[in-house]
Amino acid sequence: MAIRVGLVGTGTVGGGCIDIILKHADDFKRHYGIDIELARVCSLDSREAEAHGVGHLFTDNFRDIIDDPAIDLVIELIGGTTFARTVVIDALNAGKNVVTANKALMATYGQEVMETAERNGREIAFEASVGGGIPIIGPLKHSLIANEITSVMGIVNGTTNYMLTRMDEDGMDYDAVLAEAQAKGFAEANPSADVDGYDAAAKIAILASIAFNSRVTIDDVYTRGITNITPIDLEAARDMGYVVKLLAIAHRTDRGIDVRVHPTMIPAEHQMAKVNGVFNAIYVTGDFVGETMFFGEGAGAGAAASAVMGDVLEVARHMQQGIAPIVGCTCTDELPILPIEELSMKYYIRFSVADRPGVLAAMAGVFAKRGVSVHSVVQRGQKSGGTVEIVYVTHTAEERAIREVIEEIRSLDDVLHGDPSLIRVEE
Amino acid sequence: MAIRVGLVGTGTVGGGCIDIILKHADDFKRHYGIDIELARVCSLDSREAEAHGVGHLFTDNFRDIIDDPAIDLVIELIGGTTFARTVVIDALNAGKNVVTANKALMATYGQEVMETAERNGREIAFEASVGGGIPIIGPLKHSLIANEITSVMGIVNGTTNYMLTRMDEDGMDYDAVLAEAQAKGFAEANPSADVDGYDAAAKIAILASIAFNSRVTIDDVYTRGITNITPIDLEAARDMGYVVKLLAIAHRTDRGIDVRVHPTMIPAEHQMAKVNGVFNAIYVTGDFVGETMFFGEGAGAGAAASAVMGDVLEVARHMQQGIAPIVGCTCTDELPILPIEELSMKYYIRFSVADRPGVLAAMAGVFAKRGVSVHSVVQRGQKSGGTVEIVYVTHTAEERAIREVIEEIRSLDDVLHGDPSLIRVEE
């Protein structure tokens, strides 16, 4: 029995999926007895389907896939949470299994999608939604389940990791490196989802939900991007033995789930510090397995298509063997999400301030007043246009107090030029 | 329906499995609906079972487990290929599913074990046989199957990686670092399986079989250990921008499978070069996924027990849902194994030779005669007792020619003191 697949979305990843099926369908039969047939492809424009040699399967109406009783499995690769949500929900309700790479959908409407799948006795698989081609959802749902997972930390956005790597290695400033990333196709024309951290936030919400058996949505994730980071920060970090990464962090604590995305200093000798360029890595700690890391290409046609098609083959394998979904929703606990204000850690804060007498004393007074103990304060870089860069590193302090410090320094007679650069330290 | 588990072997890993069940059995029920009951434990001595709080389940006769119709699943953790083979085969023939961490068994009698499982309609799972707690067999059998895997390379022996790391970082010589590893419990009293590469050979045989869909046994693996490596070699490697690792390598080539274990120079910037101490890492390259790496603790009670219990829970999940084995043997091709003599690569060779006039000229003559082009030759380290260390690095050469060179230099009027140190270069 061939499993008939309908593909919705023929962009980069969809094209990769078509290529895999055309190249390896015979291998799948021979090695695994899995018989996959690409039955229909849908997008707004037929040219991509034609370019991949499947123009004859093209439709521009996704209902031709949802309403076709001969189609067993739908791959959703259009992204976003509006149209894609309709495709996924309607496909499940039409009795089809669904594979998606849609992180925003799963991090926002994951519960609705999972419940719809369960109600219909169908599978929803989404390995490609996190970490491109890196197997991480599979290991978390299978190989690692004997553990209580205590933390998941990831470099899960290749665009920002590429940008930070370039800034660090070549001293380029933010605007130049963004322009370069856009020219190379690593960053979108509107880069907000990447540089503001929302892409990473969706991914850590998905990982935290699975790892901690408790629903985390994108709105639960405290999220800050890299737009205030400059080469000065990366150089200062290096001098202190750290590397700056846009880290997606989820810790299980006694009081609930600590989940956030922000620029983070990690020790230079940590395995994650060595993950550079567009590569992704996810670091998982469990009470028995200890520390593990999953590394690979986080984006690109081939890598993401590998993950999508891995899911397709697994679901097809189950269908051919007449197996009902093996693992459904595992969010059996309801752990609270910790407000970031209540967390305590070390902070790196760089202020651009007017080079005027008394400014340093006034700032020191604010730290003292709020009870934030300062580990070091140094002036870095060249004075420029009457502005100097003052870098503070604190001892462990409460986030709430740090915010009060920043707020009060902002109000100090117009000493602050622009937003401070705030980098949290993860030991 | 509780799945009743019989555990054979209560050493380090077995103890870890008991600890996981005692700590997490309720979590497994709540999160996954998997009901695990430890029904019986077997070893030669009851003290370990008692130390882990399950003395009441002890037997010293494994037949009490195999012959007990109420036991559904057997965990084999005694190791080796004699008694363990009987336990595994008999358990499968008695209609039980089996989980094992036994790399030697799977790399030697894998086909017999797989066929016995298939004949009985039972599962055999062995994630813990490679890479300790690192999920690697699961990803290769599931998430990555949309790829043609082109290579698998691993640092899969923590003992030798610890020893090489110590030699590199602290300049300790082989004997001192082996003694230290033994004192710390990282190396056995008889260290041969680790330092001579056999442990790594079994692991790469297992990984290559799965990755290439073609049976590879331990006897197919060309295997050399680290006993001739000295700090001089590690220092020379560093000066050239390389790091020395005991690498287990499997490449798919047009002519067949290239599979081997030996000390290997890899570029210092490669992700694997940064895997130090007792950690393991497996680097997998596929035609669509590109490069991925799986990193973690390769040994220790908790890590290996995490992998064993991950398998146990997966098999239990299948049993409770009435599912037959999902993935059996996938060795559907019969690819030839390439003899190492036919491979070509770059070589690092260090000879300890008598400090006599004409020796260098004679050696140079041998390289020239055999058509091996030399990239560099330098004398390293201090002259000691009339012996000097001469380090050659070749351009790409055929293994067969390199062996002839070494053989002939050995015969040069007694110039050679001891075995040369031969390190292959993997770019």
Strands, helices and their partners?
Two copies of one chain form a homodimer.
Chain A: E1 3-8, H1 12-32, E2 36-42, H2 47-51, E3 58-59, H3 63-66, E4 73-76, H4 83-93, E5 97-100, H5 103-119, E6 124-125, H6 137-141, E7 149-155, H7 158-170, H8 174-183, H9 192-195, H10 198-212, E8 222-223, H11 231-239, E9 242-253, E10 256-267, E11 279-286, E12 290-297, H12 301-320, E13 344-354, H13 359-369, E14 374-384, E15 387-394, E16 397-398, H14 399-410, E17 421-425
Parallel strand pairs in A: 1-2, 1-4, 2-3, 4-5, 5-6, 8-10, 10-17
Antiparallel strand pairs in A: 7-9, 7-11, 9-10, 11-12, 13-15, 13-16, 13-17, 14-15
Helix pairs in contact in A: 1-12, 4-5, 5-10, 7-8, 13-14
Task: Describe the structure using short key phrases.
homodimer; 427 residues; alpha/beta; 14 helices; 26% strand; elongated
Tell me what the structure shows.
Two copies of one chain form a homodimer. Chain A is an alpha/beta fold. Chain A has 14 helices and 17 strands. Chain A has helices spanning 12-32, 47-51, 63-66, 83-93, 103-119, 137-141, 158-170, 174-183, 192-195, 198-212, 231-239, 301-320, 359-369, 399-410; strands at 3-8, 36-42, 58-59, 73-76, 97-100, 124-125, 149-155, 222-223, 242-253, 256-267, 279-286, 290-297, 344-354, 374-384, 387-394, 397-398, 421-425. In chain A, strands 7, 8, 9, 10, 11, 12, 13, 14, 15, 16 and 17 form an eleven-stranded mixed sheet that branches. In chain A, strand 1 (3-8), helix 1 and strand 2 form a beta-alpha-beta unit. The longest helix of chain A has 21 residues, at 12-32. Chain A is elongated, with a radius of gyration of 24 Å. Chain A starts with a strand and ends with a strand. The model of chain A has no long low-confidence stretch (mean pLDDT 96). The interface between A and B is large, with 61 and 61 residues.
